[in-house]
Structure formats: structure tokens, C-alpha cells
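Board notes (copied after class):
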Amino acid sequence: MPAKYWDVKPNEKDGFAPMTIVKVQGTVQPYRERLQIKISRIRNVVSADEVKLTDFITTPTRGTKDGAVDDSGYSLSRKG
């Protein structure tokens, strides 16, 4: 789902890098007949969040614990 963060403060512009995990808070809302997240808060993940990049990598295995599989056969659930 696309996400937008408006009114970025000057000190925030260099605080995030591509392909890193961030924690966001926002509102899901329609935009041009599609849903998007309007971000109200954003921060980099810290070690206390206990989040690993591998938690968000899908694997091409079927038969996940909750049975959630998309059309390509990739698991849709977060590991753990």
C-alpha cells in the first residue's frame, strides 16, 4: 500500500535511507479510488523494537501456519 509523508521537517530529510525499516503511525484513506497511508509520525526502528529485516522477506513456500498465501504462492504473514 502506498504511503505519503507530507510536511517533512528539514532535520528529517536525511534521517531515512532506502531499504531500511521504519516505524510509522498514520491513517489509511482513499486517494483516487485507491487506499494509501497518510503518515503522521515516522521513525527509524531501534533495537528495542526487536525487528529484523528477515521478518519482512517473503518466502515461496505454501502452507503457512495461518494459511495466508497470495496468488503467486508467497506467504503473506509476518514470520514469528
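Comment from the instructor: The two ends are 22 Å apart (CA to CA). Residues 73-77 have pLDDT under 50 and may be disordered.
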